[in-house]
Design a protein that fits this description.
Layout lengths: L1 H23 L4 H9 L1 E4 L1 H7 L8 E4 L2 H8 L6
Antiparallel strand pairs: 1-2
């Protein structure tokens, strides 16, 4: 059973790593580094992956309000 849990965690982690790499591909190198250090996944995507359900969306949270303000000013959102 412990092995199954470890394999599930690895599967979820691998999936989230790919989703994160896809997400940060839209940003320049400066923001890629910042996002790697100051953000994390939360919410339904983690639950869905852990329970073999389809992921509807990904919630990525920033740990620094200053970064959030900088990112919100980028041309990506216009």
């Amino acid at each position: 059973m412990e092995r199954d849990i470890i394999m599930k965690i690895k599967s979820v982690t691998d999936h989230l790593d790919k989703a994160f790499d896809n997400f940060i591909s839209y940003f320049d190198e400066k923001f890629k580094l910042i996002l790697r250090e100051k953000s994390y996944f939360a919410g339904g995507c983690v639950y869905c992956l852990a329970n073999n359900k389809p992921v509807k969306d990904y919630d990525i949270f920033l740990t620094d309000n200053g970064v959030c303000e900088e990112i919100s000013k980028l041309d990506l959102w216009k």
